[in-house]
Design brief:
The protein is α+β, with helices and mostly antiparallel strands and 628 residues long. The protein has 12 helices and 36 strands.
């Protein structure tokens, strides 16, 4: 078969080299921005004045691993960032002294084996940070208050064993989100004197596999803004009264769920937009094929209208100064990724701050189009199709690319892996199979008990759809996924070995029972309403047998598809044994399998050199098996 004419070639390095700048956040006083940019080929934090002409300066110096998150504080002297060790997810909190550029960063949580899980810089508590910290007991996180200047740590609440999330009100009242023994979600008040939780409201855990999200105390501490689907299929924004436990609807969308992805993955924008100074609710995000933002404050509505004029993308990260007048905004776009602007609502001035990837030409990148596929049982399964530029979209080699979670979803955005594959002439199909969030609770609950079942049927039905539409050549379909998506790729080559001509498993589970037995200790109290409900409890022999029946390792003798396995040696979520055991079993049978193991990565590759190596391997692998 003759290969199609490929679009303008873009190198792996061009797609995966570090952005020149990214993640900009304006300072509370509106005079500067902090952002991530390369230093010694690792992303570090830089500061630049907005109005002066001075060059930006690098304020962190991590040459081992890219920094992923940082925080302005209410004191202009201190900036905070988090860092782990080679992907081990033992996050430490570091403080940078902006008044002393030569001083090394200070580890504020220098406790071996301890993780900072969540960080909040609360309004009305200057110089303090609230942390979830498992210093006392590795299995649970206590609520601690940290003095940023002295590093003194005070425990505000000791976790009784089932709290997943703590909140602290302006008067010092502490609230918690927990799981009951039956797997339901409980919102409660912490009674400090007795060391007990006083229930306020309960939610059916099966309706909230990733928890009740978002969960944000109102500024006066009398209520919480939460995402609720009680009595409806869609997640809407309500106020939970902390005295009565009653709900009052604040806002909703007739067809879309509140976009809780940012509450699951903090690197993404959160569902609630809050006033930086007061903490008042000013906006809410919803997500369908594209994002919709509802302005809930007239001043923000006016600012939002100005910001929307800057790009045809979706509004991503938003930050303002304390007055709400000076804004920095990043746009989500399939071909113009993370373009970042400054906007002054008072003067009307707006200007481009930077494009993270100025070397990428938007016209050479492939548009990402929403699609809808009808599964064999009649369920509508959404997804996205990306077709190569300048190539007739007929009979193409295709890669099915599947997201992790599984309680996550793909959305309209720039994805360098998708664009690399499209640039090499592949159609790329992303399938939001049942169980993906954002399409109503019935769609999520349709995945209960369906690992390697109807969840996989959705993927196969999507492949058949693409072939029937003429986009894909049925003999040249590959599959690639990470985490749950890696498991799904392995299911593809064990349960349906004739469908795929090549497969890539990226940090995926091969043995569901072993996976659940080896998850981090602090995750185990929180699995009753997700993993145990959807997949099973490995401590129950009958359920373990079912889990093994749905595990690719059990059916390794069926694998004859060329397979590439990619793993981070320090992965604490899907441990290295999940890949080692699979590869060993295949090699013992003489089956073709490539294995890429990164010694300094965890659950997903972060460092640019590892990402570049990985996608060179992926590119060669698919070219060998799908392009002939």
């Amino acid at each position: 078969m003759t290969s199609p004419t490929l679009p303008e070639f873009i190198s792996v390095e061009d797609f995966f080299t570090p952005p020149v700048r990214t993640g900009a956040v304006i300072s509370p006083d509106g005079t500067a921005i902090a952002f991530l940019a390369p230093w010694r080929n690792r992303l570090n934090v830089w500061i630049q004045d907005l109005d002066a002409g001075a060059d930006p300066r690098c304020v962190t110096a991590d040459e081992n691993r890219s920094v992923q998150s940082f925080y302005w504080t209410d004191d202009p002297r201190w900036l905070l960032y988090t860092q782990d060790g080679g992907g081990d997810e033992q996050w430490h909190l570091y403080r940078v002294d902006l008044d002393d550029p030569g001083a090394p960063a200070v580890d504020l949580t220098p406790f071996p084996g301890v993780t900072v899980a969540l960080l909040e810089l609360p309004k009305g508590r200057p110089g303090k940070a609230l942390l979830h910290l498992n210093k006392r007991k590795v299995e649970v996180f206590d609520l601690c208050e940290l003095d940023l200047a002295t590093a003194d740590l005070t425990v505000l609440a000791e976790n009784p064993g089932r709290v997943a999330f703590w909140m602290c009100g302006p008067d010092g009242s502490v609230f918690a989100r927990s799981l009951t023994s039956d797997g339901d979600v409980e919102i409660s008040r912490w009674e400090a004197a007795a060391g007990t939780l006083h229930p306020i409201a309960f939610f059916d855990g099966a309706d909230y596999p990733v928890g009740v999200l978002p969960l944000q105390l109102t500024p006066d501490g009398t209520g919480m803004w939460i995402g609720s689907n009680r009595g409806t299929d869609r997640t809407r924004l309500v106020r939970l009264d902390l005295t009565t436990g009653g709900e009052t609807e604040i806002d909703s969308h007739p067809a879309y769920d509140l976009d809780i992805r940012g509450a699951v993955a903090p690197a993404l924008p959160g569902p609630l937009i809050l006033d930086r100074r007061t903490g008042a609710l000013i906006g809410a995000r919803y997500l369908g094929e594209r994002q919709v933002i509802h302005a809930l404050d007239p001043n923000f509505a006016a600012a939002l209208e100005n910001l929307r004029q800057l790009s045809d993308g979706d509004l991503g990260a938003l930050s303002s100064d304390a007055t709400g007048q000076r804004w920095v905004v990043t746009f989500i776009h399939d071909r113009d990724p993370d373009v970042t602007y400054y906007s002054d609502h008072t003067t009307g001035e707006s200007r481009l701050l930077f494009r993270p990837y100025p070397h990428l030409d938007a016209d050479a990148l492939a548009p990402m189009a929403p699609v809808s596929i009808t599964a064999r049982d009649g369920l509508r399964v959404p997804g996205y199709l990306t077709l190569p530029v300048g190539v007739e979209p007929v009979g193409l080699p295709m890669v099915v690319m599947l997201h992790g979670g599984p309680w996550f979803r793909d959305s309209w955005e720039f994805d360098p892996a998708v664009q690399l594959l499209a640039n090499r002439g592949y159609a790329v199909l992303q399938v939001n199979f049942r169980g993906s969030i954002g399409y109503g609770k019935a769609f999520v609950k349709a995945a209960i008990g369906q690992f390697a079942g109807t969840m996989h049927d959705d993927v196969i039905d999507a492949v058949r759809w693409a072939v029937a539409q003429g986009y894909a050549d049925a003999e040249r379909v590959g599959i690639l996924g990470g985490s749950y998506g890696g498991y799904a790729a392995l299911v593809g080559v064990t349960f349906t070995p004739d469908v795929f001509a090549a497969a890539v498993d990226y940090v995926g589970m091969s043995n569901l029972a072993n996976f659940l037995r080896t998850i981090p200790p602090f995750s185990k109290p929180q699995v009753a309403n997700n993993w145990h409900l959807f997949v099973g409890d490995p401590d129950d022999p009958e359920q373990e047998a079912d889990m093994l029946a749905r595990s690719p390792i059990t059916h390794v003798d069926r694998i004859r598809t060329p397979l590439l396995v990619i793993q981070g040696a320090n992965d604490v979520r899907v441990v290295r044994a999940e890949s080692d055991n699979l590869v060993a079993a295949l090699r013992a049978r003489g089956v073709e399998v490539e294995y890429l193991l990164a010694a300094d990565e965890g659950h997903g590759f972060v460092n640019p050199d590892n990402q570049i190596e990985m996608f060179h391997v992926v590119e060669r692998f698919f070219a060998r098996h799908l392009q002939s």
